[in-house]
Design brief:
single chain; about 50 residues; mainly alpha; 2 helices; transmembrane
Length: about 50
């Protein structure tokens, strides 16, 4: 019975570590990558970029 309990606790630790890693990635993206920031280029240059 101790083997099942040990495996369960390790799985909880694994899931918690993945959750924390996900929160860290979301925090990094939110605070450092500035999602939703727009460019200052006119719309015509965005739609028809110069090659």
């Amino acid at each position: 019975m101790s083997t099942g309990s040990q495996a369960r606790s390790r799985m909880y630790i694994f899931v918690a570590a993945l959750f924390v890693l996900g929160l860290m990635l979301v925090g990094y993206y939110t605070f450092f990558q500035t999602p939703g920031e727009i460019n200052d280029a006119p719309a015509s240059e965005v739609v028809n970029p110069k090659s």
